[in-house]
């Protein structure tokens, strides 16, 4: 099958990270450090991506600054003609390294924010003095003149800081803030009790975003991912499966989305074995839910099927055990009540205790 080329690639350079956010989007089974692609292998992936038609490269992790070759990777990506965006917590960057990244041609920085003060940010990120370091990094970013997006992941414990986060983005000179309510996959699934916002909080967040968008028009762009357990329609996850985005994991496994490995029957290919274009066009995992033919009812005859693409396959898997089902967030799903019950139950759990993300193992465990 020949598909349109992907627009964007997410390159998870490593699963190593100084932080241990309890909602990390990395898989629960992290890629081993000794399995990571080498510099040369990543450079080949970037060249193949550009040849395939990818325009934007999001360098992510874990923490991409944990890779010592980050500057070389940025330079290689720029040489291949890709627009480069660094998605970082800021920890592991200093002024010298940021200047080197600037010289290598880095186009954009996306800085994550776990909270708007040290107490919240350091507790959620599981890293002491992380907030202080992050604020220093934001000043170097601004002094160098990188276009900046602030990424604020919201949940029950920090949602009251949303207005402050938006103001911080303005004060930092960011062009954009991504206000994303935590998505419940991987590590976040283990923390639904502690992170699920209430329905009232979700409504309040939407109100704050609408007000700020009107007030800050022309100053700050606000991207908003609402709390989908409280929504009536699902998010158009990945803009449709294998439609516009492609992810490469630290060990070279190529994925249609960051959580795809939670779908047990899918088989994933590796850039160490096959060319990227072959995987994109003909990989069985990419073709499993591409387009609309796979859709069940009510999606198949729904006038929103080209708008939300039936929602999120990984969420249908996680909540219903069936990745080909209509995302139960949708009011038209015969199983919608599952989501409503979970949202109510988890948001009123009364427990704020967090289970933090682990670090990736270093060596293959022995079988003896
Ligand atoms: Fe989207 Fe399917 Fe719901 Fe229609 S029925 S709104 S396509 S999830
Ligand atoms: Fe996999 Fe939504 S996260 S399809």
Automatic annotation (TrEMBL):
EC number: 1.21.98.4
Domain of life: Bacteria
SUPFAM superfamilies on file: Radical SAM enzymes
GO biological process: molybdopterin cofactor biosynthetic process; pyrroloquinoline quinone biosynthetic process
Catalytic activity: [PQQ precursor protein] + S-adenosyl-L-methionine = E-Y cross-linked-[PQQ precursor protein] + 5'-deoxyadenosine + L-methionine + H(+)
Requisite cofactors: [4Fe-4S] cluster
InterPro entries in UniProt: 4Fe4S-binding_SPASM_dom (IPR023885), Aldolase_TIM (IPR013785), Elp3/MiaA/NifB-like_rSAM (IPR006638), MoaA_NifB_PqqE_Fe-S-bd_CS (IPR000385), PQQ_synth_PqqE_bac (IPR011843), PqqE-like (IPR017200), Radical_SAM_PqqE_MftC-like (IPR050377), rSAM (IPR007197)
A GO molecular-function descriptor: oxidoreductase activity
Keyword DNA-binding: no
Pfam families noted in UniProt: Radical_SAM, SPASM
Keyword list, A-Z: 4Fe-4S, Iron, Iron-sulfur, Metal-binding, Oxidoreductase, PQQ biosynthesis, S-adenosyl-L-methionine
SMART domains (UniProt xref): Elp3 (SM00729)
Residues at which [4Fe-4S] cluster binds: 17, 21, 24
Radical SAM core domain boundaries: 3-220
Annotated transmembrane regions: none
HAMAP family noted in UniProt: PqqE
NCBIfam families: PQQ_syn_pqqE, rSAM_more_4Fe4S
Subunit relationships: Interacts with PqqD. The interaction is necessary for activity of PqqE.
Family: Belongs to the radical SAM superfamily. PqqE family.
Function noted in UniProt: Catalyzes the cross-linking of a glutamate residue and a tyrosine residue in the PqqA protein as part of the biosynthesis of pyrroloquinoline quinone (PQQ).
Protein name: PqqA peptide cyclase
Organism per entry: Actibacterium lipolyticum
Annotated gene: albA
């Amino acid at each position: 099958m020949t598909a349109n080329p992907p627009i964007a690639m997410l390159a998870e350079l490593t699963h190593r990270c100084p932080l241990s956010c309890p909602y990390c989007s990395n898989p629960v089974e992290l890629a081993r450090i000794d399995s990571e692609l080498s510099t040369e292998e990543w450079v080949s992936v970037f060249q193949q991506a550009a040849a395939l038609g990818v325009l934007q490269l999001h360098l992510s992790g874990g923490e991409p600054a944990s890779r010592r070759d980050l500057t070389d990777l940025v330079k290689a990506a720029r040489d291949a003609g890709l627009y480069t965006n660094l998605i970082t917590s800021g920890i592991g960057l200093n002024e010298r390294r940021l200047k080197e990244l600037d010289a290598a041609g880095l186009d954009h920085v996306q800085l994550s924010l776990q909270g708007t003060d040290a107490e919240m940010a350091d507790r959620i990120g599981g890293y002491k003095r992380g907030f202080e370091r992050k604020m220093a990094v934001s000043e170097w970013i601004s002094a160098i003149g990188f276009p900046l997006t602030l990424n604020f992941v919201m949940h029950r414990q920090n949602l009251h800081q949303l207005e402050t986060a938006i103001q911080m983005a303005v004060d930092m000179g960011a062009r954009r803030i991504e206000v994303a309510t935590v998505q419940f996959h991987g590590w976040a699934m283990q923390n639904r009790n502690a992170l699920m916002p209430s329905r009232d909080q979700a409504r309040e967040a939407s109100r704050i975003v609408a007000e700020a968008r009107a007030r800050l028009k022309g100053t700050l762009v606000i991207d908003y991912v609402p709390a989908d357990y409280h929504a009536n329609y699902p998010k158009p996850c990945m803009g449709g499966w294998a439609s516009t985005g492609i992810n490469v994991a630290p060990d070279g496994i190529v994925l249609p989305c960051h959580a795809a490995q939670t779908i047990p029957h899918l088989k994933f290919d590796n850039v160490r074995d096959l060319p990227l274009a072959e995987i994109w066009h003909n990989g069985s995992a990419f073709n499993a839910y591409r387009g609309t033919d796979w859709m069940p009812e009510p999606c198949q005859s729904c006038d929103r099927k080209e708008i939300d693409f039936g929602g999120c396959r990984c969420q249908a898997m996680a909540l219903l055990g069936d990745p080909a089902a209509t995302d139960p967030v949708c009011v038209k799903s015969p199983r919608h009540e599952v989501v409503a019950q979970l949202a109510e139950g988890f948001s009123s759990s009364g427990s704020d205790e967090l289970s933090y993300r682990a670090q990736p193992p270093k060596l293959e465990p022995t079988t003896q």
